[in-house]
Amino acid sequence: MKKAVWSIVVLLVLLCTAGCGKRASAPEAKGVGKPKVIGVSLLNLQHEFYQDLREGMLKGAKKYGYELKILSADFDPAIQANHVRDFIVQKVDAMIICPCDSKTVGTSIEQANEKGIPVFTSDIRNDSPQGKVIAHLASDNYQGGVLAAELMNEALNGKGNVALITHPGVESCTERIRGFKDKLKEYPGINILEELSAEGQRDKALYVARDILTKQPELHGIFGINDDSALGALAAVEAAGKIGRIKIVGYDATQEARRRIQERKLYADVIQYPKAMGERTLDVVHDYFAFQAIPRRHIEQFLQGEQLNIPIKGGVWKGTGT
Fold first, then answer.
1. φ, ψ of residue 227 in degrees (nearest 5)
2. Burial zone of 189 (CB within 10 Å; 0-12 exposed, 13-18 middle, 19+ buried)
3. Do 106 and 75 form a contact (C-beta atoms < 8 A)?
4. Integer Cα distance of 70 and 57 in angstroms
5. For a FRET experiment, which of 34, 84, 176, 279 has its CA 20 to 30 Å from that of 101?
6. 86: CB partners within 8 A, 6+ apart
7. 286 φ, ψ to 5°?
8. What is the pLDDT of residues 204-257, one digit of tens each?
9. Whether residue 14 has pLDDT greater than 80
């Protein structure tokens, strides 16, 4: 395995922390009053990425004495909307949402806003004009897409036909595709023949990849916007007897994907660190609570909000000899 280190920029649109030094201790951790309750609606909990994100959030919550109510939306915006309504009824102190649909989630966020409940997003951004988000924390998915294109160019030696397995309703995935396409402009020998959505799900990616392989016999590479997409494509490629002939680049570097890379069945993966992302999200929520406790006369310079860039080291996973 070769590992190239790069920076995944985490964007935090905050109303707090700049120049504030150490984080204040959480009153809940000292046993003063009831613990703050935070409602969390994740995209799903079947994928390893979101299991790790959940683990990181739980670690962060334990640090501050917060109670988390973590639910899985199972890729369904309607289920996620119900989560938000239930959290409102429960009068949670804050919400963290990984949107199932970046365009429609704004309505739910706006409902929380109207009840004075602060909303944070993790991994996937709200792209709707509705709803105010206190902070968004995510990898630089555009740069990740750029890296994926570099890997594909390397795998194909600068020449070949590729297909993209996408998830257009989710902002983080569309950013990966945007970065991939922009970087591919530098490699004129590589052509995109197909671009189909599998909604980030392995079983759907299998069927999509089968369809692509049938229609495109001269295919040389596939980029999947997450590892379930890449692994679904791998199952189709393997069934077609084309392992090694079609190079697959994935995204997330889950344990299963890393194993397939070491077996030389996947070419490479872009890495994310969901555990760190989850824990950092709770740090940001705590910073917001601490900020709210500061007298307004001391924070005039922060009232308009401020954007901070916090780097998380990442890289790529590549199989030996590929």
1. -70, -30
2. exposed
3. no
4. 9
5. 279
6. 39
7. -65, -40
8. 999 999 999 999 999 999 999 999 999 999 999 999 999 999 999 999 999 999
9. no
Say how far apart CA 218 and CA 265 lie, in whole Å. 19
Residue 94, both tokens: 């804050």
Place of tokens 């935070």: 38
Count Cβ atoms within 10 A of the Cβ of residue 289 and give its class: 0-12 exposed, 13-18 middle, 19 or more buried.
buried
> Are 264 and 321 within 8 A, CB to CB?
yes
Q: Are 236 and 213 in contact (CB under 8 A)?
A: yes
Give per-residue pLDDT as tens, 148-178: 999 999 999 999 999 999 999 898 899 999 9
In angstroms, the Cα distances linking 175 to 85, 92, 249, 282, 285 are 29, 31, 16, 24, 25
Gap between the Cα atoms of 263 and 196, Å rounded: 27
Beta partners for 38?
A: 68, 94
∠ CA 254-257-185 to the nearest 5 degrees?
100
Q: Is the pTM of this model over 0.70?
A: yes
- List of residues 6+ apart from 166 with CB closer than 8 A: 173, 174, 177, 195, 196, 197, 198, 225
Whether 204 contacts 232, CB under 8 Å: yes
**DSSP 8-state symbol, 302:** G
Q: How many CB atoms lie within 10 A of CB 142?
A: 18
Q: ∠41-98-229 over CA atoms, to 5°?
A: 115
3-class secondary structure for 101-164?
CCCCHHHHHHHHHHCCCCEEEECCCCCCCCCCCCEEECCCHHHHHHHHHHHHHHHCCCCEEEEE
- 135 confidence band (pLDDT: 50, 70, 90): confident
Q: What structural domains and CATH numbers belong to the chain?
A: 11-138+274-305 (3.40.50.2300), 141-271 (3.40.50.2300)
Residue in 273, 168, 181, 278 with CA at minimum distance from that of residue 229: 168
